[in-house]
UniProtKB/TrEMBL annotation:
This is Putative MetA-pathway of phenol degradation.
Amino acid sequence: MKFKLLGIFLFATLGIQAQYTDMINSNRPGESFGAYSVGTNVLQFETGIAYGKDNHTFSLIPDRTQVDFQYQVRFGLFMEQLEVILDGSFVNAEETLLRGGTETTSNFSNFQRNTLGAKYLIYDPFIKRAKEGPNLYSWKKNNLPQWRDLIPAVSLYAGVNLLFGENPFKFPGESNISPKAALITQNNIGRNWVLVSNFIVDKPTSDFPTYAGIFTLTHSIYSRTGVFVEFQTYINDLYSDEVLRAGAAFLVNKNLQVDISGLMNFKDTPERWRAGIGVSYRVDMHDSDQFLFKDRNEEDLFNEERERREREIRRMRRKH
């Protein structure tokens, strides 16, 4: 009996699954990317619509009203740690300029952002924790924040911006194709808090590269509801800003999430605000788990235990 229990324990703790979860794992409603992928053979759509205004204090700069159509398509490719992401927004804008008592209006629309990239998890601290198992003697150590929560999961992202034609959202002389890269960290703090950080370099080969940081704090208040607050900073020779976002998401079922969010900034050149809603939907084609091993010996031990269990099952079937 002890041997059988030991075998079950080894089979459960050796070779920990990396990414796939039973519930949808969405980047919405914030702008940051989480460190974890959706899982192999999982196709996920994350989309939303936002309405907002950019108001300038300088009379020579037009005010803008715009509607943003936001989209992300994510797919887990080849392995649990890797996903490809198509991320962007299509904007319909109206600019109004008041000069000499005459108001002029212009309308335009195009892709403000369209980026194809890939994200790869290079370190996951929870693999070791899952192997160690829960603390059987302390509820506090299993449920409350610990010092080890400061060790984040880490991913790298690399992508390419794709904006073609006469696009009004491109700065003068900007090329149609430019690179983008990011370092992504994620801290799961206790059972109810998650801190995600993105450190971004966008269009570094252009005349006006952008350096940005996004910091998102999420809190689960009920089993199906979560709230978030997010701070984002941009550094660019043409436009720099600090933005605060907040919102909430509700899990309809394991494959469907809906959300609401808002945005405001801290300057008046322009003064910005946005309000939006969104939905995330997962097409779950994940059929088998990939297991991650510390070394070859651990993989061999896992395979031996799996073969032993299969033989035991076949033996029991013969008896019946």
